Amino acid sequence: MAISVVMPRLSDTMEEGKILRWLKKEGDRVEGGDIIAEVQTDKADIEMEAFGSGILRKILIGAGQSAPVGRQIGVIAEADEDISALLSSVAGSAIQTAMSAQSGASTPLAPAHQMVTSGRVKASPLARRLARAQGIDLAVVKGSGPGGRVIRRDVDAVTSVTTATGRRAPSISPTPMTAERAVARAPSTSPVEFEDRELSPMRRAIAKRVAQSMATVPHFYLTVEVAMEKAAELREAMQVQASDLKVTFTDIIIRAVAMALGRHPAMNVSFMDDRIRVYSQVNIGIAVALEEGLINPVLRDCGRKSLMQIASEAKSLVERARALKLRPEEYTGATFTVSNLGMYEIDEFTAIINPPEAAILAIGRIQNKPVVVNGTVQIAQRMRMTLSCDHRAVDGATGATFLQEVKWLLEHPLHLVL
Known about the structure:
Blueprint: E1 3-6, E2 16-22, E3 29-30, E4 35-40, E5 45-49, E6 54-59, E7 66-68, E8 72-77, H1 84-88, H2 92-102, H3 125-134, H4 152-161, H5 179-184, H6 201-216, E9 219-227, H7 229-241, H8 249-263, E10 269-271, E11 276-278, E12 284-286, E13 288-290, E14 293-295, E15 298-299, H9 307-322, E16 336-340, E17 359-373, E18 376-390, H10 396-411
Parallel strand pairs: 12-16, 16-17
Antiparallel strand pairs: 1-8, 2-4, 2-7, 3-6, 4-5, 6-8, 9-18, 10-11, 12-15, 13-14, 17-18
Helix pairs in contact: 3-4, 8-9, 8-10
């Protein structure tokens, strides 16, 4: 029986997907469970499976094109089956666009200028687009991203050091001149003032969600300063104990947050219009910066995990998040989020809540600063944390009590490993 291939919903916030490439071409045999295409969503690049067997008779959305969730993008059927009814169900304009894009090509997988490389090259969607536009074969580009992934700066580096002949452009030393002569010899044409870049699915989803959050969620903010000397000592001791696993300050903070949420369940909640949902399990999202946006992989059931378990799982999640290889269940279902910008030398910041979560904790850097201890000025390690709360679900005193608990645990970190 003929089967419609539709754009699947691959994340809870996904509204459309972009076909990165088809792994099968028209006329290929397909079995149920085969990977037939790679789809870029607002969260990750995900392999799309076939949910039936037959011949891939028609591709309606080519590589590089987007389609909303539920839109028919192809047809699988036996060679002798009539698929005209399925094709006629697609809007005429969409059919014409897809067929015109595919006409005259030996394969409907991509526009004629797209490169063909052997094997799978790990690259970000932006790097792929830039490489296609400039005719660069990603197979010969050395990636500097996580796991050797090719990212934008790698493609830019190739284009900036090569000429049309593939050789390095010569360096030109201009003749010294006065400022007046320099102005006189300046080109008369004005440089390009700006460049419009299409929003990626991820950037589009982020824009929509943060705008909705700020417009509909009444935020309030609480900030505390934490003494981090003992937490730093704990981290060093754990590095000696487990040299094969790097324990980060983020791991330690997540463990403290998980314990504090277990002791203050009123913070582990969501506002649900006519009720407040209190979660029995602590699922902490970790804000991870990507080249094209932000994603929050989720550490599930943190309240039942040790610090070493959290460190190990967080490392794996972050690596796969940066490679855009998370499964949908690994970036959904968070009940609380931690966002750490300390590695960027940010002192403190306020973060936007990711609904339906009711709070997010923003972490600044650890810095040496003068503080008063027992009436004397000393240099000490301090870190600032800012808690953003949804005032519909959390009151000021509730947030303050929770934040004090996190601060106490970080200042008495042996409780994090007992």
